[in-house]
Design brief:
Largest sheet of chain A: 8 strands, parallel, barrel
Helix content of chain A: 40-55%
GO biological process, one term (chains A, B): thiamine diphosphate biosynthetic process
Family (chains A, B): Belongs to the ThiC family.
Radius of gyration of chain A: 26 Å
Mean pLDDT of chain A: 86
Enzyme class (chains A, B): lyase
Largest interface: A-B, 168 and 166 residues
Oligomer: homodimer
Pathway (chains A, B): Cofactor biosynthesis; thiamine diphosphate biosynthesis
Strand content of chain A: 5-15%
Function (chains A, B): Catalyzes the synthesis of the hydroxymethylpyrimidine phosphate (HMP-P) moiety of thiamine from aminoimidazole ribotide (AIR) in a radical S-adenosyl-L-methionine (SAM)-dependent reaction.
Distance between the termini of chain A: 53 Å
Chain lengths: 628, 628
């Protein structure tokens, strides 16, 4: 079948709501401020509502046409601020899509296709002298709708959580250890404003991405995850890219980076942005390199600047900028085990060496800030010198760059430009905390955004696991967003299943961090699932899990019958004997007696004894094994 | 095809040596002391030798007949000690294999099959008054062949490791943080003896398991992993059990627990033990429960004792004994979120409640010690009250039991019985270290052996990942052995692929812990693989990884051609541009100049510049995407 049909088929799959789930909304202070949540209805009548990144795609009522894009929820908010202007925008060039000058025919076709693209529209920018960043508003004491949206979203529905956790955890042991984070009991819009004003959180939301459902990245908010997608001349189509996006946010990607290269990247980006409810990040140097035929030393500030404006006009929410790869640092990588492994970093290193000049990105950093604040593009200051192996972790090259990123953070903040800092990479467990400490020390609490880190080098094919270990730890220590790693890392291109595996592994890491930090309510979902498990509500256990489909499929491999979904046993212990059942018997007994359970246990022994004997005829039919 | 044929087919798969690998041996002080290693030959001529748990199965020359079992490497050592006697052994009963008394025909058939079993042989036990535990020898200053074997095995071939690491890591940052462990530069037989004498390590090696290749479990040795296997009346055959064992040790299981239940468990255990080069553990209460028809309250000391002797005679190397589930602790579980989730723990809880009496296992603990020391069966003191959910982690029920296990450890040591302590379970990250600290404090540095722990409850289908995070952390903190969790945990029976997934996840966790602890040489394999990666030696990268098959398959999905196995690029960056290649250019350039790389970088810039320009015609053909 042709590409559109194929896409339609894939989308029909990814648009299916999760089992027993429906979209609900938290109503904000204005009618057009509605924060989506996923409500899971349990078989005992309870409702659990969960943070939802999947956008309108999981709402059956909404008609989706990827050629028209998603509704622009933020447009009224932008209009009301009255500090932006719509303008013609930069003239699109065939080169933006990778067409070569000599390639006349391709250029003509590109142009035709682009002219026809319904998604094209004139961009906005800040009016002369205006600064339209969320940080700028925050510092002027303005609480934007984006900030209120984030506050509602971070809290979720606290009502059901209290049923499990109470207003505060019963015991100290369950309160978590925030490791220096200052997480409030309730996130208020004012708290969000203050965090953004301090630079401790960012809300990536380009004024040319009105489709975005605002979210925050910061140490005092829920830990977020990023998934990378990207086209490939040889392996995928533009339409497949949009489907990859929808697939990624279905499984919980809070942000997506479009790392496309080669042909059609400009158009690919248009389609992704117009159809994305989550912030989109890019690495502009990749496209700039395309424009100079892949010859790093031919890069110029003019070409790079033009690319930043091109992407800012399209609505990219954050740029990875490798401004810390400075000429004086490059020789520090010479005796590394694996040198420079960041593509952006190596591009700039090649440029610096070939010209024996300081990085033009570093030298033009304030010029870049001027572009960022005209569109509210956030900085993701890239770690171009991150370690590519355990042997290179925490070395001078890495930390010299980190200190520079700290200096640049203050420059960006001088312009009220939102900023986060990228981190490694490959780091053994004993060196992970030092990464967080150094980042906090030198980068003034700007959000940290790490790739993994991978705790060992010998797990190709399983690097999503080797890195989930490091990601969970650094997330607990204070990292605000975790960039996922798929099983294909170091080996090849992630396919649809690899993307899902990477995302689920990182949802585990991020949630483990939220629970350890003691984020209010984070553990409520665990309690709800464990309660369902204990009460043999199998469907509820599946439906509350990160991947209900897989949980149910695995269970059904051994016990396919629907009856077993309500049976008070599982395949591990068999029907006649179950450890959880015994505890329930103890508890029921205590309840009958109407006295404290502890007393009942003592007083009731004799009676209990005879009860058990009556059941003595049971024959224990074990079906399988369980640990200890 | 019939079972034997099926087994033969499966075995032929699992007997295939790993790619570019051959079995080699470290020769000990006596001709019959030869420690197996796996030698991987790299394409650059280097040889890397790795710890090998796979036994004779991966040596093509060795003829294997599962009906005859493996060679008894330890028999001469046992004979020389001259402190054991061969005796008739306990009379086998049909009930041992789960045949019911009323089931005459089944009983007859069982008996016939058992009489015919070539694997049956008279057991050994300590001569009257003798104590044959490794701890007993160690405390008398005797270095046994088992101890020397362990020393050679723990060191591995240090020669090749030095090529990467030098005698000591260049920099402090790479030396690891042992978190209180005292890991020597070289493990001597005397060090092993001392660790065993102190009780800080155990060598599980029943005198009736002469086929075992000795290994150590202790905080100052490499972190080990355990895989659980077990039959199931409905899902597998005895022969499949043996194949499961071979499959588990192929992927790196250091120990295997046979958690079989139901029919044929006695015979299954015989076959597993006679064919296992790794220590085998069991939970004897499971079989004892079979013998009383699954009615926990009908258990008696006589039945339990008889089962311990039955299994000790077969050669089981360690018993999980839930002696810490005491009557006074049971009520502490009543208001838990998930009560008692350990099967052994709940069996004993049911017994205590129904009789309103103290646990017969606790009361007869010293009688059990007498059995253990007559066969050198090690204790694995079970945590029957471990938490089954994050909400129950580190509660009083758990820690009350842990303190009791500490008391019992000293009782066991009074009898020179080797002992390790089992740990949880479900524990959020911020509570993991407290588990290790409490265990060290109350259990006198007896080896800790934990199940995970799982850091969150919401990942059914992915609990091998949710628990690998906790396992890696607690392994770093000092846990000696990690019991694996498979993707099927909480949902169903692990199949062949689940077992592999669980083992690889736990090899990652254990290796991450070894690297973080700074175990000498642990990081050498990472360096060798990263060097291969950096030098585009693809086959070496695959062959040094934990799962060469998967690494190669993933790579080949994108670049199947054999040519690309030596190509200086990968699918992530494409043929004309590679970040690692650039670093190599920088390094080569510096080398040519014959001056320090740092100087060369400065001095050589201008020249480098022109060189790069010559290559300017290159067109960058990107094939895919990579993170920033």
């Amino acid at each position: 079948m042709n590409a559109p049909d194929k896409l339609a088929t894939l989308l029909s799959l990814t648009r299916e709501p999760f089992p027993a789930s429906r979209k609900s909304y938290l109503q904000g202070s204005r009618s057009d401020l509605r924060v989506p949540m996923r409500e899971v209805t349990l078989t005992n009548g309870e409702t659990v509502s969960l943070y939802d990144t999947s956008g309108p795609y999981t709402e059956p009522g909404v008609a989706i046409d990827v050629r028209r894009g998603l509704p622009s929820v933020r447009t009224p908010w932008l209009d009301e601020r009255a500090d932006t202007e719509v303008y013609a925008g930069r003239l699109h060039q065939a080169l933006d899509d990778g067409a070569k000058h000599e390639d006349r025919e391709a250029e003509r076709i590109e142009q035709l296709r682009l002219d026809a693209a319904a998604l094209q529209r004139p961009p906005r920018r800040a009016r002369a002298g205006a600064n339209v960043t969320q940080m700028h508003y925050a510092r002027r004491g303005i609480v934007t709708p984006e900030m209120e949206y984030v506050a509602l979203r971070e809290n979720g529905k606290r009502e059901w959580m209290r049923e499990y956790l109470g207003d505060a955890p019963r015991e100290q042991r369950l309160r978590g250890n925030p490791m220096g984070a200052q997480i409030p009991a309730i996130v208020t819009p004012e708290f969000v404003r203050d965090e953004v004003a301090r630079g401790r959180a960012i809300i990536p939301a380009n004024i040319n991405h009105p489709e975005v459902e605002p979210m925050a990245i910061g140490r005092n908010f829920l830990v977020k995850i990023n998934a990378n997608i990207g086209n490939s001349a040889v392996t995928s189509s533009i339409e497949e890219e949009v489907e990859k996006l929808v697939w990624a946010i279905r499984w919980g990607a809070d942000n997506v980076m479009d790392l496309s290269t080669g042909r059609n990247i400009h158009t690919t980006r248009d389609w992704i942005l117009r159809n994305s409810p989550v912030p989109i990040g890019t690495v502009p140097i990749y496209q700039a390199l395309e424009k100079v035929g892949g010859v790093a030393e031919d890069l110029t500030w003019a070409i790079f600047r033009d690319t930043l404006i091109e992407q800012a006009e399209q609505g990219v929410d954050y740029f990875t900028i490798h401004a810390g790869v400075r000429l004086p640092f490059i020789h520090l990588t010479a005796d590394r085990r694996t040198g420079i492994v960041s593509r952006g970093g190596s591009i700039m290193a090649k440029w610096c060496i070939s010209h024996h000049r300081e990085s033009f990105i570093y030298e033009h950093f304030e010029d870049i800030c001027d572009i960022m604040k005209a569109y509210d593009v956030s900085f993701s200051l890239g770690d171009g010198l991150r370690p590519g192996s355990a042997a290179d972790a925490n070395d001078e090259a890495q930390f010299a760059e980190l200190r520079t990123l700290g200096e640049l953070t203050q420059v960006a903040w001088k312009h009220d430009v939102q900023t986060m800092i990228e981190g490694p990479g490959h780091v053994p467990m004993h060196m992970i905390q030092a990464n967080m400490d150094e980042q906090l020390k030198h980068c003034h609490e700007a959000p940290f955004y790490t790739l993994g880190p991978l705790t060992i080098d010998i797990a190709p094919g399983y690097d999503h696991i080797a890195s989930a270990i490091g990601a969970a730890m650094i997330g607990w220590f204070g990292t605000a967003m975790l960039c996922y790693v798929t099983p294909k890392e170091h080996l090849g291109l992630p396919d649809r299943e690899d993307v899902k595996q990477g995302i689920v592994a990182y949802k585990i890491a991020a949630h483990a961090a939220d629970v350890a930090k003691g984020h209010p309510g984070a553990r409520a979902r665990d309690d709800a699932l464990s309660k369902a498990r204990f009460e043999f509500r199998w469907m509820d256990q599946f439906n509350l899990s990160l991947d209900p489909d897989t949980a149910r499929d695995f269970h059904d491999e051994t016990l396919p019958k629907d009856a077993s979904k309500v049976a008070h046993f599982c395949s591990m212990c068999g029907p006649k004997f179950c450890s959880m059942k015994i505890t329930q018997e103890v508890r029921d007994y205590a309840a009958q007696r109407g006295v404290s359970e502890a007393q009942a246990l003592g007083a009731g022994m004799a009676e209990k004894s005879s009860q058990f004997r009556q059941a003595g005829g049971e024959i224990y039919i074990p079906l399988a094994v369980d640990k200890g």
